[in-house]
Design goal:
about 350 residues; alpha/beta; seven-stranded parallel beta sheet; 12 helices; disordered N terminus
Length: about 350
């Protein structure tokens, strides 16, 4: 698509994507570029300056030139309503602060604003670069917080593992059914990012292999605990991530010791009540696979009771780059600007 071919409706938000050279930022730029009610005003990066984004990611067909994020660039762009920031944690917060200083609403893809408790953040990530901004932030799991997201100035886009896990578990948490919990999660190599170490993504390491990583210390653990507590289940979560030989895709398998016996009929009622009106959560009648949701903003969930152990097994499947990151950012932008939540995502 030529740049001149893109047209926008009157009043459409003009959006900047900072960090567009990474996997998540590039996909966010692609989704905004093709969005019928948003204008992609600029893409910036800390590398590949001067290159067209479509030269780095030909599949996305975004012809805009990658620029350096500096005050003169922002001055030249005029009125910008929003930004998506795709930097790593600690690097994101100062940029979010700069953009907020210009009155822009921000969806941050890093972990810098996901944890509401400063002490919890510093325990898992170290010193916070901009703790003064935490009160402005709303956790961006759209299905759980859309009313607050609508008025938010900073939306902390969730991690991909928490998105899959919390969506799989929220109906059980709300019903007071979670007594103990183990989450066994698996993700493709794109989750490690474009600059991941060779042992993470090289074909000779990743193919024909399954590798646990960040054993007993994964940083998404407190995020999952925070969100489940808000749904009614305050407990420590045993979370373990695995790298599997996929490009994109993620599965959270959740093993729940329940507070009482639950049968499949009750589970069906709980999940239907939670998600029948949700446009991007699909309750399915068999265990989902990640291929079913690849390249979409859908999360598929399934739960079953085990009559032998009395446990409930719940699954959440999504595309880690889409619903797990970038398309969920667009879902949140839609909510923030009063657009149809599905706009540009179906």
């Amino acid at each position: 698509m030529a740049e001149s071919a893109q047209t926008f409706a009157s009043g459409s938000p003009r959006v900047l994507v900072a960090g567009a050279t990474g996997f998540a930022g590039a996909l966010a730029a692609h989704l905004i570029w093709r969005h019928p009610r948003m204008e992609l005003a600029a893409v910036t990066g800390r590398s590949e300056i001067g290159s067209a984004l479509q030269d780095l990611y030909p599949q996305y067909r975004v012809p805009l030139e990658i620029q350096e994020l500096e005050e003169p660039l922002l001055d030249s762009l005029g009125d910008l309503q929003a930004a998506v920031v795709g930097y790593p944690h600690a690097a994101a917060a100062p940029t979010v602060g700069m953009l907020r200083g210009r009155g822009m609403r921000v969806v941050d893809l890093s972990a810098d604003f996901r944890l509401a408790d400063l002490a919890a953040y510093e325990s898992w990530y170290g010193a916070h670069p901009r703790p003064d901004l935490l009160p402005q932030a709303v956790y961006g799991l759209t299905e759980m917080h859309r009313d607050r997201i609508a008025g938010a100035q900073i939306v902390a886009n969730p991690g991909c593992y928490p998105t899959a896990s919390v969506l799989a578990l929220a109906p059980l948490a709300r019903a007071g059914l979670i007594a103990d919990l183990v989450i066994d999660a698996k993700q493709g190599v794109s989750g490690a990012g474009r600059t991941a170490p060779v042992e993470t993504v090289h074909l000779s390491y990743a193919a024909e292999n399954i590798t646990p990583y960040k054993v007993a210390k994964h940083r998404h653990t407190p995020e999952i605990e925070q969100e489940l507590a808000l749904q009614g289940a305050s407990l420590p979560v045993q979370f373990q991530a695995h790298l599997v030989p996929l490009d994109q895709g993620e599965m959270a398998s959740c093993y729940v010791t329940t507070t009482r016996r639950v049968d499949d009929a009750e589970l069906a009622e709980l999940y239907a009540a939670a998600y029948d009106s949700e446009p991007f959560v699909e309750v399915v009648q068999r265990p989902p696979g990640v291929r079913e949701v690849r390249g979409t903003n859908f999360c598929r969930v399934f739960a079953a009771s085990d009559s032998h152990t009395g446990k409930v097994i719940a699954f959440g499947a999504l595309d880690n780059l889409w619903k797990g990151t970038s398309s969920q950012a667009i879902q949140n932008l839609n909510v923030m600007f009063g657009l149809s939540e599905t706009e540009g995502l179906l």
